[in-house]
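#struct-queue
[09:14] JT: dropping the first one here, sequence first, then the structure tokens:
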Amino acid sequence: MIDIAQRCIQALELICRHSGPVTARSLAAAMNVSERTARYDLSLLSSWLLERGVELKSAPKKGFYLEERQRERALALLRDFGESSGDAGRFLSADERVRMIVTDVLEERSSWSFDEAAEHFGVSRTTFARDLRQAEKWFAAHGARLLRRQKRGVRLEGDEGEYRRLIVAFIQENSDQKALLTYFITCGRTAERRIPKPSSFAYINRILCGADLPVIIDTVERYNMEKGAALFDEDLIALIYYLAVMVTRVRDGHGLSAISPQYQPYAETAECGEIEAILASCLSRMLSPDQLRCEAAYLSARWLAIAEGPDSHASTANSKMARRISAYLFSRLQEELGLDLTETDDLFNAMKTHLQAAITRMRLSIPSPNPLLEETRRRFPEVFRLCSQITEEIGARFGVFLHEHEVGFLTMYTAGAIRRERNHPPVEHIRAVLICGYGVGTVSLLMSALKQQFPHIAIVDRLSIFDLAGYDFSQVDLIFSTIDIPLPLSKPLLKVNPLLSRLDLRRIYAFLHSRQGMAASTTPEFRVGELLSVISKHCDIRDADQLARELKRAVSPYSGPPRALTELPSLLDVLPRRHILAHIEAASWDEAVWKAAQPLLDDGHTMREYVEEIIEIKEQYGQYSVLCGGVCMPHASPSIFYKLSLSLATLKEPLELVLDGQPVKIYVVMVLSLADTITQAKILDEIFSLLDEFPHIGAELQGAATTEELCRLFKKYYDRLF
């Protein structure tokens, strides 16, 4: 019996997926192997299929194929193969092979020869050599080097600390954040035993699931609380990764054996002694006292590199230097900006502790990526330029050379301070909490921006993702988050950019508008009585009670709690394919509106009276509902008898209007049918966002020759933004 190779199974899947012949060259490209390797696999596959009564045919210059009946049998074989082989029988793509090489190196299982590795990964020696070069590039990109050993594979040039740093980086790059957050939040906090694994990689799951994360998380939270320290979610998660890696490596016999010179100062801190005592309670059987001291020194250094505001920072080696740099920085900012920022003690202390952590990160070469760097540079160019200049002065004056990412963080602090100076005390009516993972400077800037734009919103608390399960949201109205939250919360949630983009502002305005509309709406009973009174004047009512019950159901949405914008229907929800028309002919605006509205009328989503009201509004007020970019979106008053819906039509020849004395061309007409004043908030938000991001979208949509092409083009723009 022939043993099938994993790659042959992928070739069979590709052949089954195509209705016609597939060439060996195409298969080779899809599987990232040479054409010669692909032909060898096809020969093996053909023999394997024949043993099972399936004939793989080939046509000269066309490729390989299966007849329909043979295809059905092949698909059944694929299903049987998948069920019997599990993950072990799954074909590995080139990227997966590279990641396997990386994990073999990180687990110190890379002593294979080239011939052994080729067999291990199911590829030729040439393909393995190419995969190994890609793996070497990954290590080089992370500041590490692989050493090749004659007939004994490869190994990493570095100590145990280097291994751990790279393993953490691998976890961060190859994990789904939503799955990880779900796992972090729920593990150990729920009676449900079957929690989804945090990653699709068995290697990562072995580390995260085998290290008793609930205990690690609780220990970190308790220690931070005792020290008065706040770790932002991004840093906290990275620390949890490191702790899980540390426990796994120690359990596998890879403990730290010596304290390197740059970590020696941290072995003398109070934090090191406290952390050593914690480690001794759980790892003393696996580590000697000297090894425990090494682990504690390394861990205390990492903690001090990310902790914001711990009480013990005053005793750290970097405290005096950070205080001097902070004073110099504030002095220079006052000279350049004319603002006395030293009066804001909380901001000064926050910047000082940030600088303490930054100095630690710099001296230990611990990266601190700033995901908002480019946006900060764009939003605050002058402040960024000034902070860059001052940090260069700090490097020359104090010998502390801060990375550009740190300059971005300092820019956030400074911009937040400027906004605070210019703001007046807010009048607070809405209580909100903030879930933020990017650092104190970002929180300060975000809170200042919220107070400036929405003075009646008060941020009453800042939460970590680990606070969500037990937090009482009954006393707040709204939740802001700068990261994805994978679990449902009891209050409306708005995800925002920490720098508050235009899209974020519209989302918040839409929520506030919907909340006011909900609060101002009358009870269902009152609305039903009002409607019954109007109906009875013009109609004979056969069953008043039945009519009242149906009317109450119709208006009941008005009495519900306010909904977050993410719960409202999106643009694609209300714009089906049948409502999209390409190149309609219209000699006037009125005719264009009628033709664009026809799909809504055909589906019964609105009535002729609604379109007539649109025309009447135009006649009475000169309102053509032109947005921008050649797009207009006419609508009239909402009614419970209509359904929220949208149509989109492009004009074969653009209409030319004169508005405020200026010529305007119309390429696209979108008719919006309204059922109420609330549920359209997200639709309008997304339309305005598309027009902001792609100001020429109207003319480009009009260039689509067919309805199918128009649908694809519109969906392409939508997907790029949302």
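[09:21] JT: and here's the second one, same format:
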Amino acid sequence: MYRVLYRKWRPQTFDDVVGQEHITSTLAHEIESGKVSHAYLFTGSRGTGKTTCAKIFAKAVNCPHTHNGNPCNECSVCKGIDDGSILDVIEIDAASNNGVDNIRDLRDEANYTPVHTKYRVYIIDEVHMLSIGAFNALLKTLEEPPEHVKFVLATTEVHKLPATILSRCQRFDFHRITPETISSRLKYVADEEKIELDDDAALLIARIADGAMRDALSILDRCAGINEHVTAETVGNASGLAGKDHLFEIVKNINANNPSEVLSLIDRLHRESCDMERLCFELINHYRNLMLIKTVKDPQKLIVCTDHDLELYKKQADETNLYKILNCISALEEASAILKNSSSKRTEMELTAVKMTIPGISGDNTALMSRIENLEKLIQSGKTIPVSTVESRPAQEEKPAPEKETVSPAVSEEKAENPSPSQSDNNNDEDTLFNQWGEVLSLLDVSDKPLTGILGTSSAYIRGDFILIKCDNPVFSQFIRQNNHSMAIRKAIFDVTGRKYRLGIYKSGENENKKNDPLADLINKING
């Protein structure tokens, strides 16, 4: 029967354990000198060797032929512990045996002397899963166990253990194994298994494993199932590093301040059943990689990706500034917390995408610094800076009263697809509320979903042969100037009313000149 690599190559002696020499050497010396504690606590991240060392320890304290603190693995005791025929070594999963009754049974069994070995060894894995009552039941036995009993507790979350448990154990912290050490071990295993493993593939597996030897061997096992010659490309395909083109495309359009395309990409991913929380996490990691490239001399050691993707990251990092990257990470981290309890995860993700695409909307310091850096680059180039090039943030003022609002209709049929924001007289015709606007939005929800999200709280008015749209969303004016969106609105209006209308924007004329961005005033001073 085939055995997976991480089980087949599980270390059998302390000398076989890699990357934890500070622990294995201490345990071997204690066993050799006979100064063995009654309770040990092994803590560290997954796959670093906690349970493996506990099993080696159980054999070593009972083996009659130890060598330098290591079990011989040849005697009947070692073989019996390995194959499970000797029941004096008990391994307990605290995740499924976490009650008071389980610990009481353990406490009662501990009073019996071992049958085949010198010590009865209890290995309690994931000990942090025990209930408070179970911890209390364990305290007395853990502090003063019978002479023939040893405890080894293992956990990945040591902070969840009571201080009363910690103070009764000899604690060992297992470190994440370095990529170089994992890579070397993988090359050894691959040679023994007759697997052709490239050096760059071994190092990529080691970085993906994030310090866990078990994870690294599992990835190697998966890659070997695809092809006996394991390359970096094979590792990328097997571990899910490939197929991240949509992330580069989203970030490209965010850098280009193109909210329409970003929302269209999110819509496509949503239709393909992409989880929005997962997308948010992937974007955070993507921007983290861009941040590292902008700030670290040798980012390849900190970024888990193929060489091809690293070049794409470097190219994309050159196209944006650090403040923009930090602003996007902050926005995504905030969204990540909200998404867990959001009733509409897609809407929250779209809202975050718009904030990142138009940083002028945000009052965050990193967004402001990003705009200032762009302004400095234009000043250094010696160009005259038009105010329209600055991403302005709407001033926090009260909304004007309805009687002060003026209308901004398109002036001709040819311009209907790209409505002009210029003001016109408010007394040309009487404005009438367009009561069928809700039906129009229902049709747009099918034909143009990104636009529907922008128009969520909008209303519309009729003036002559114009439909005037009132929308407080600052992104709307950019969307309506794009032919595909304006045509979608006109078609939906025609389907509902059976009549062709021209489009206009219903907005405040008096207050428009008051909503100046502080950066716009700065530009005017620079231009003199």
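[09:30] RK: nice, looked through the second one.
[09:31] RK: Confidence is low (pLDDT under 50) at residues 387-428, 509-515.
[09:31] JT: good to know. The longest helix spans residues 276-295.
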